[in-house]
Every structure is written in structure tokens, then in C-alpha cells.
User: What shape does this take?
Amino acid sequence: MEAPAMEPGEMEAMLRAAAEFAPFVNDWFFSPANYSGAHGDDTVRQFLEQYPLPKLLGVRLMYLGWMKLLPHAWTKYFLRDMEHHFCQAMAFIQAGLLANSKNTRQLACKAVIHLLDKAGDSAVVVDTFVQHNLYPLLMNCLTEGDEEISAISLDGIKRLAQIPKGIEIIFPPNGQGSVQLHKVAAQSSSMARIRILSLVAKLFAVSTYTATAIYDSNLLSLFEDEIKDRGDMLKTLSALEVLYELVEHPHSNIFLLKTNLLQLMVDVINDSSADSIVRSRATLISGRLLSSADAFMTIDRNCVANLLLAIDKLLKMEESQNTDETESALEALGLIGTTSAGACLLLTDSSNAARHVVEASFGRQGRGKQLAALHAFGSISGVDRQEDQIKLDNQAEERLKRFVYTTARNSPKLTPSALLLSVLQQDPDIRITGYRVISGLVAREWCLMEICSKLDIINLVTDPKMEMTKLGMEARHDCCLAISKALSSSHLHEPSLSELIGKLNEAVKRGPYLSERKRVEPQPVVVPAERF
Assistant: This one.
């Protein structure tokens, strides 16, 4: 498709007029305050109305300096008074999207966004988009343009979807729109298909309504198609990266768990021929899919069991173990264990996947692995849950206690209190995750007794000079608060604990940021004159 053409005579007349008016139009656009040409404002407007920008785009006027005027023409002439030049603006956008010039196409894509931001009557915008066939042209820029044009056109389509009636252009009620995303993807290159997946992810985040439209249009199957074909690792990884972005949205689980995507992630994790980074990303996507409380209300439990077995198998591989895969697996278990339902499943499932988290939390087999394990252990123990949901059912609680005591018994530390103390004596990042674990575990009386039996733990968590970062100070204070709350609601009221309780109450009252350091006031110094 090309920009609007002109008859030879019309083009000759326009070239003569352009040569005469270009200098004055240049002043009018760039410095109107200083403009004092022979041609008034109305004359310049008359020229632009006689030869509108869509026609100017159809000829090569680079030598006259016209192309550099286009952004300013758009800003000054059209956008300043949108309601009076709406149709001209749309015609200009249409011509710009059809132009061969990269700069002009970029300008037209940006103009779409500007127009959608400024237009007040969304019904008029929708009608005009349809009349000027702009949506297919934007889609063409998305799939065929360079990286920058593609990104801008994607933002334009997303902005269109945010208009109440705009989504009807992308997903017509009768399902018979001029652009069928499924058909476009089937006829596109590998790179263009990934761009369409990115568009689906962006539209998915707009609202539950657009997410429903995507699900009803079966567009989520595009992800399945790209990920199933694992012959091209970069293509598969790109599709997984877009899917990873999509599962971040709060309402994604409602729709994604109705598809075969979770089972597909299990297949990827079990695929020994797949690249480790592909398996790592699939593991994290699985964790995110199961990180919400309502996930377990709709998902097939057999599929979840298969996932836990796949992660268990991955974590059992000791020889030549990939660090990224291990950390991703532990992080995924932490995501699943964020909710009560997920934590109970991890602790009671026959795979005993939670055992890997507890053992790795106290085993010094790599700093990254220990950090990931401690963070996951904190999530499973309930630090991220509401106070009344921290503790789990009896079977899960018994398993949790057994895992901790078994790990301690098989270590040189022998007791859970000694294990927790060893974590708090490591570097600041490890220590912060240790605070998380204690904040969650201390709701259990057996853990509270372990902590109270180790005065060194209390001394560390109540020491205001212990942490130097804001995150560390807040984590330490939250830990103090959790221990204090657990003590106040427990049956432990022995006189020997009075000093410990006093320390905790003082630390809680002091807050996270105040320390006991005394401020050194400046002192005057008297220097004998002989020194000079």
C-alpha cells in the first residue's frame, strides 16, 4: 500500500507552491513569535489545507526541508485544535503508516497514541479508526516494522484497547474483524509471532474484560504452539519470557489454568534435551501459576503432583547441577508455598518437595542456593500470609516440624536453634532471609521455645546496630515483633524469660531505624598561640 498519489499537474503546482512557501512555513512552525513574513498565518494554513500532509508524504520533498517539518506540523497544526482537524489528522496518520520512511511511520504511530489520549469522544475515534483502516496498518507496523516502530505501534494498540469501544475493533463481537490475530500469527515470521504474543500479554493486562476476550478467542493457544516446538531454543525462550510477563498479572491464573499450559511447563521441565535456561523459566512460570489461593480450586491435582515430582527430580540431581535451575526450582516452591493451600500441599505431598527447601536453607552449598531456599522457607512458614493463616493443618505442621528437626539432627549444629543462629551470623543478605524464616516459624510454639532457649538469637535480633540498610533494619524489627507477639499469645510465662521479654519489648518500641548510638556533639578546641 502506498501514500495517496497526485496527478502530474497537481504535483507540479504543489512543488512550485512548496518552493515559495517552505521558508515561511519553516518560520511559522519553528518560531511563530518571530514570524514576520509576507505571507500571513491564514496563507500558510491555506497552503497546508490545499496540499495536506497525506499528499506531501506522497512525494519526495526532502531537498525542500519539508520532511523535518512534519513533526512540528503535527504538533502545531493538527493536535492543537483536534476537533477542527480530526479527519485531516486521521488521513495524515493513515498516510504516515503507509509511508516508506521509517521516521514518518514512527511519527504516525506516535500520533495514534497522542490522538487516542486527547480524543474525548471514544465513539468517534472507533468509527474513524474503522473508516481509515488504521488498526490493520498498526498491526502491519507491529509485525513488519523495526524494533522501535513495533514497540510504538504495540503501545498504540494497547491504548486503543483501553477505550471502551476500542476493544471491539481488536475483538469484534461477531468474531469477524478485518484482522484475525490467529490468522496473522499463522502467516507471520517467527519474530512477528513473538511480537503478537507480546501484544496478547499487553492486552491481557488492560482489564479482565480484555483477558476474557483473549481467552474466548483462543489466543492463549498461540503460547502453546510456540513452546511445543522446541527446535529453536531462542524462539522457545522468547515465548516463555512473554508468558512469564503475562503470569505476573493478578487475574492470569483464572484463565491460564484452564489451558494446558501448566502441563506443558511440566513437559519442558522434564525435557532433558532442553536448555537449562528454558527449564528454569518454565519452573518459575509454574510457580507463579500456582501462587494464588484460588489456583488450587480449578487445577487438576494430578497435574500439580506431576509438577512437584519434576521439581523434586531436578533438585535431586547432585552431579553437575545447574545453579540457575536449582535456584529457580527453590523459588518456584516458595511461590507455591505462599498460600496456605500451597504450603500444605508442599509439606504433605508424597514428593516431599518442601524437604529440599529446609535442607538447602541450612546447607552451605552455594550462597545463591541458600538465599533462594531461605526466602522460599520463609514463604512456606507463612511470613507473607495473614496472621490467622500462618499456621497450617495438623498434618502439614507435623511434617514441617519433622523436616526442621531432622535437618538439624543430620547437621553439626544438632538443634534448630543452633541452625537459626548460624544463619543470623552470616552476611547481611543471608541474615535478612533468616529474619524472614524466624518471623514465620516463631508462630509455632516448638520454634518459639527453641529461640527462647538461645539468648544469642535474641541478642542479635534486638541489636539496633546489627543492620546498616533500610531493608535489613525493617526485617530485623519485623522479626522482633513476631517473636514478641508469639510470646504474648503463648503459654510461656516463666520468670526466667522476663529479661528476654524486656529486651524484645524495648526493641519493638524503639522501631526499626533508631539505634543506641550516642550523637557526638562538636566540641570547641583551644589551641595555644605558640603553635602558630
Remarks:
- The longest helix spans residues 8-30.
